[in-house]
Each structure stands twice: as C-alpha cells, then as structure tokens.
Amino acid sequence: MPPARLYRLRAVRGLLTALARVPDTRIGRYSPRMAEQFPDRQWGSRTNVLSRLANKFAATKPGSWFVRKITPLDRALLERTDAKYTVLGPIGAPVILLTTIGRKSGRPRTQPLLYVHDGDVLYVIGSNFGQERHPAWTANLLATPTATVAIAGQRIPVEATLVEPEAKDAIFARFVEITGAYAAYRNRTTRDLRIFALRRA
To answer: InterPro entries given for it (predicted)?
Structure first.
C-alpha cells in the first residue's frame, strides 16, 4: 500500500476512534459506539381526560405546590418498587429516581424526576417548578457526574453530561410534549434550565 494511502487510512481510523469517545447530546442522534438502551415501562395514558386535566392543573402555581407536596409520597413508592410504579402512573407520566452524590455532604441524594427517553439516553431537566434556584441535584451532577437511575424496576449506574445550549430547544420541546407545565415553569424564571443527558456508565 502506498505510504500516502496508509497515512490517510490511519488518520481516518484515529478520527473514528476519537468520535466514539465523544458523547453526542443532540436529541435523536447517537454516538458511533451505541450504548445499551434503557428499559421503558409506562402505564396509564397521557391522552385521557384525567391526564389533560392534571397537566393543566400542574401548570398553575397551586398545581406546582400540590406536586411538590406529593413528591415525598411518590419518592417512597418509587424507592420501594425501583421506579416500577409512581403515583403519577395513571396519567402516563414517565418518572425515574435519580440518585446523586451530595455536593457538600457527600451522601446519596435521591430525587424523582420526569424524563425524556431517547434510545440510549435519558434526559432530565432542572425545572424546579419554575423557582429561581437551580435544584440541588443539578449542582450535584455538575460536581460529580456519576449517578444511579432507578427505572422500570432496575437500578442502573449512569454518567451525566450537561446538554449544550444549541441542543436544548429540541429536547425541551419533548418535555413540553409530556406536560405543558414545563413551558409555564420556564416562563416563571429568568434562569436557564439545566438539562442533562444520562447514559449507562
């Protein structure tokens, strides 16, 4: 093989190897090294009357207050079932349990979160119901990106990557498809809502 052709072949191989190590956070796109997909288990329906009414209520401030109040109950159910069941199940809401390492305490911190499932990626968003502060779990992930996800009865180690600004609008639209409350949350605050891509570690 001519030296010039051999050099080009090695360069292409090197580029492909480098690309395989780069996480691709653009929705609907996967890195060349496809990871194992996450399980998915949702019950209920996001199109029934109950779901539509619940989504409208959740977009209001009283609705946000109510969801925050039932979060401890939902966390208990999710922890007992490894996120196989959630109190939001009847309205078809996809919920996981995300366990991060506390940025200050160093202890495990667990939070129920709605998610967008896109192949080998789970996306989670730090909406915090439109409050002015970022939720603590987002700061935990920025400090320590390794975490654990409970989903569909399984606990899976994950690595978190902060989604780049240019990819966020498309992903945010997917969250709004789940519930229009996210649009209301974003309108309530001036902060930029952090979105993370979670992949199997």
So the answer is: F420H2_quin_Rdtase, Split_barrel_FMN-bd
Looking at the fold, whether 110 and 176 belong to one and the same domain comes out as yes
The CA-atom distances, in angstroms, between 66 and each of 61, 70, 88 are 9, 6, 12
| Structural domain count, the chain | 2
**Residue 84 shares a structural domain with residue 108:** no
**pLDDT for residue 76:** 86
**What is the C-alpha to C-alpha distance for residues 117 and 37, in angstroms, rounded to an integer?**
9
Which pLDDT score, from 0 to 100, does residue 79 have? 87
* Strand segments (E) across the chain: 95-101, 108-114, 116-118, 121-125, 146-151, 154-162, 195-200
Range of the domain at 70: 41-91
What pLDDT, in 10s, does the model give residues 119-176? 899 999 999 989 999 999 999 999 999 999 999 889 999 999 999 999 999 999 999 9
Q: Assess contact for 122 and 149: CB atoms under 8 A.
A: yes
Fill in the amino acid letter for 81: T
The DSSP line for 90-124 is: GGT--EEEEEEE-TTT-SEEEEEEE-EEETTEEEE
State the pTM of this model.
0.74
Residue type at 76 in one-letter notation: A
One domain for residues 118 and 182: yes
